[in-house]
Amino acid sequence: PQELVLMPVLDESMQEIYYAYLKIMQGKESITLTDVKAYSDLYSIDFEDWEIDAIMGLDLERLKAWQTTQQ
Fold first, then answer.
1. Count of C-beta atoms within a 10 Å radius of residue 5
2. Other residues' Cβ atoms within 10 Å of the Cβ of residue 43
3. 3-state helix/strand/coil string of the chain
4. Lower Cβ count inside 10 Å, N or C end of the chain?
5. CA–CA dist 63, 44 (Å, integer)
6. Residue-wise pLDDT tens digits, 18-43
7. Residue 50: alpha-carbon gap to chain centroid
8. pTM of the prediction?
9. Are 40 and 46 in contact (CB under 8 A)?
10. Sign of the CA dihedral with 10 first, then 51, 25, and 45 last
11. Please, what's the largest Cα pairwise distance for the chain?
């Protein structure tokens, strides 16, 4: 599909953040900082500030895209 052709390629450091985001969002309507903290504690990961911002930003964009499709 065309969407796959146009997808950006993530470097290794960004892949780790994206995979963490995918795990955190499972079964969630939206992600909270508490969810990120729980994931961090469970997997013994010390996220840097920018990584937390990236995870929260991904979720915000997902919610915006979902709202757009619902209109």
1. 6
2. 9
3. CHHHHHCCCCCHHHHHHHHHHHHHHCCCCCCCHHHHHHHHHHHCCCCCHHHHHHHHHHHHHHHHHHHHHHC
4. C
5. 27
6. 999 999 999 889 999 999 999 999 99
7. 12
8. 0.79
9. yes
10. positive
11. 40
